Each structure stands twice: as structure tokens, then as C-alpha cells.
Amino acid sequence: MDARFTDEQDEIRRTLRELLGKRCGPEELRAAVDTPAGHDPALWTTLAEQLGLPGLALPETYGGVGCTATELALACEETGRALAPTPLFAIAVLAAPLLLALGTDTQRAELLPRIASGGLTAALAVPGPALATALALTGHDPRGTWAGGGRAGGVQARRAEGGWRVYGQVDQVLDGHSAHLLVVAAHAGGFARSRVLLFLVRGDAPGLTRVRQTALDATRPQGRIQLRDVPAELLGNETVGALPALARLGDTAAACLAAEAVGAAGRVLERTVEYVGQREQFGRPVGSFQAVKHRLADAYVQVQAARSAAYYAAWAAATEATATTGGGTTPEEPAGGLALAQALEALRRAAAEGIQLHGGIGFTWEHEAHLYFKRAAGDELLFGPVHRLRAHAADAAHVFEEAGT
Questions:
Q1: Residue 96 pLDDT
Q2: Can you tell me the distance from the alpha carbon of 63 to that of 114, in angstroms, rounded to the nearest whole number?
């Protein structure tokens, strides 16, 4: 493993940081989260046209840049640093890889170039509060019971004349209220032969109702979707189940989330160090007191360790993807879940120190320090908690099993 970044990777980080620094300051951030979509469409168009972010990890055949999960994670680190309210994670990390992995040739040719250009937004809809389970981050469910069963909660799919119909409700869909295309996980086949499949639902489909939810983290907007006998198109074919594809996606998603978290943690820590160097108490800067130095040093070490884990997880995910297509060997164990756990802890610690060391202003709407804490808490609610991420990783690695069992 070569731990050095390539010139191209450094350029992606530098260019994205400069652009977000100009276009996504505190005032722009607040204005964006207050819009119905929860993000700035003009900024997203710029990110798509100038940097190709939606198609960063898509093959050039479909209009993408042709990079790997490593470059995608580095981009997520920069958007996390700015808490940029963009649909990057929902589109490039969750939806697009599923379209690429499971879609038919026709579906890929129709949808992926439009996603890569930024003209089509997409979101993954997983029933119930089970996104982390569906991605195999906090548990393993080989039957996909998290998908529910229509009226009992979740989404049910049935055959109908001319295609499929889906019925049910999904309450937490990242950017689901504004996406042009929904990738919906649903049960099909009845109880005896029930299986989880993925379906494509157009944003303007008859019977589809969507509303933006009030989320703890306003910078990561969520929508609730209701499906009342909505026409849908099967993603791929019935012979290929969705569960393995979702599980494979989980490690890459965790690596990108970990990179987002360390980007946010690094930024809030920088702001805190800057503030305590300027704020004076008893005639001297607050940052000169030994107790403050120790607290910030501990947070810095935790953030740097989490950053190293996130980079390794991104490299491992990219290496595994290359090996899957016949280009090498895979790492011994998936690293995404553990990296995400470490990154979420580091972000929570850095954000908490930032709020306290900023004093009373740290938790007010006028200052952005509280937004970083909400990002940490919101991500843990969606993709954690931390102890379950670690417990599942330990189970997968057979850490607590006796030898010979």
C-alpha cells in the first residue's frame, strides 16, 4: 500500500476546498438549508459541470470521471469539512453504484450519463430506520426483513399489467423529497418466496407523495415518501437479489461517511483553536492555559487517528472493487464500519469541545459550531450507533469466537 496521494487526488481536494470556500460560507449554508430542496441547486450544478462530482466514481463509458472510491472519499471529506448541503452522498455514494452494479445495459445507458452530468438526481429509499442494517454496517439480515411488508410497514412490490406496482412508506430518505429518481427497496414474491428487489420510481410518478422531514441535522435533508400503488421499473432482473449488492455498497458508503466526518471534525477543531487563540481571559489568550491545550491536543490526536482509518477504509474499498473486476486481491477484512465508528467519535468529541470552548455562542444559531455537533449526532442516528458498528465488525471478524469453533 502506497499511502501517498497522487497529484490528481491532491488536485481534487484543493480545487474542491477552494470552490466550497467561496460558495459555501456560513451565510450561504444557512440560506441553502432553508430552501425547499435543502441544498443550493446552482452550487450542485457548478460541482457537476466543473468538477464532475456526481460521476466521479462512474466509468468514463457512462460519462463519468473513472476514479475510485478513494477519490470519492476525498471529495466527501471536503464537502464534510464545509458541511456543504449537496446531494453528493445520496447520489454518488448510494444510488449511482447500485444502478451501475444491478442495472441492465439499457438502464445504465439511459440513467448514468444523466447522473454524471448532474442533470438527474437520485436517492436510495430503504424502509424503516434500517439503512445501516441494509448496508450491513450494524447487522446482517440475510432475508431482508427490514424491508417490511407494505401495510405492516415498509414497501411491498407486486406484478401488474405492463410492469410492477409498489405500495408502502419510507420515512428517512436522504434527499428523497427532491430527487428526480428513487431507488426503492421492496419485498416481492409473497411470504413463501419473499425476496428484496430494487425498483426505479420516477419523481413525478402517479401515487407518489413526498415531503421534507424536520431533521436534527438540517445540512443532511431527509424526506418521507409514500407510495400508493405507484408504477415502478425493476432495477436489473429478478435473478439477481438486492441484498448482496447493498452489503457490498456498505463498506464504500462507510468509508465515504468516515471521510465526511473527519473533514467536519478537522474544520471545527481548526475554528476552535483559532478562537481560543484570540479570546482573552485574565489578560491572556484562553488557548494559553494548559488545561485547554491538553483538551485540544487530545481531540487533535483522535481526529488524526480517525483520518488515517478513513483513508485506509477508502483504499480498501477501492482495492476490493478492483479485485472484484479481476484486478487484484481483496483486503482481509472490510474496514469501513470500524473507520466510521472512529470518525463519528472523533467528530462528536471535536464538536463538543468546540461548543464548550466557544462559550455560550457555540450552541446558538448565529454560530456554526452547533451544526457540526448535529452532524455527528445525526449521522450516528442514521448509520450507528458506534457500539453497534464495532460489535458487528467484531462479529464479522470472529473476534470473540473460541479457536476451533
A1: 97
A2: 8
